[in-house]
Amino acid sequence: MVLLFILIFLKLSITFAETQRKNARVDLFDSDDDTSSISSSSIMQSERPGMGEVQVHKDVLLDQSLDALYEKRSSTREQALASIVDAFNSDLQHEFVEKKFATLLHQCLHCTKKGSSKETSLASHVIGLLALTVGLGDQAQEILEESVTPLSQALKSSREALKITSILECLAVITFVGGANPEQTERSMQIIWQMIHPKLGSNVIATKPSPAVITTVVSSWAFLLTTVD
């Protein structure tokens, strides 16, 4: 589960590259056709929306989904987050991320604070995909530093397995991409491990975590351990 975002991202990269190669081959073959074939192809293409129009439509939908994250109704925000996840899963959204990086990150973090389990899960998914999209560098480090405290607080205030596991997986992914030094990785590992071994006061009774939470803690912690020298 903790590798879900990475596997999706790699799959998208491969699919995108293959599509580009196929399009290049089609263009090459079309250039050798006779005039009638070219005319027929032109007519067919004129009846279908161009790639530019499709991309504009996708950009508009993403902008609308981002705006919907400001809505008060949780169900509206959930639908918007689901649309953003679908968009990121279907294509690499570098241009959108370049323009709306900070806004998307902060709205998703806001969703993890007060949202339902489903909303938090979707928002965590988006944050992970956002980190994978920007890749290694300053923006990935910013995602990590901006997210650690809100995600840690959300973990402490929640007892719902779906919310906890989603945040743990998100934290593992953004640390993997954005962690620039061992201290950052160890900090995230400590936050993750405390979900099954919390620091308790004298009058606090520990709550036994669910099997799903234990599994996610162990896999996330072990995953980050592989990055520590």
From TrEMBL:
InterPro entries reported for this sequence: ARM-type_fold, IFRD, Interferon-rel_develop_reg_N
Record's protein name: BnaA07g08760D protein
Annotated organism of origin: Brassica napus (Rape)
Chain ranges of the Interferon-related developmental regulator N-terminal domain: 36-228
Listed Pfam families: IFRD (PF05004)
Family named by the database record: Belongs to the IFRD family.
SUPFAM superfamilies per record: ARM repeat
Superkingdom in the source lineage: Eukaryota
Leader sequence segment: 1-17
Keywords noted in UniProt: Signal
Organism taxonomic ancestry: Eukaryota, Viridiplantae, Streptophyta, Embryophyta, Tracheophyta
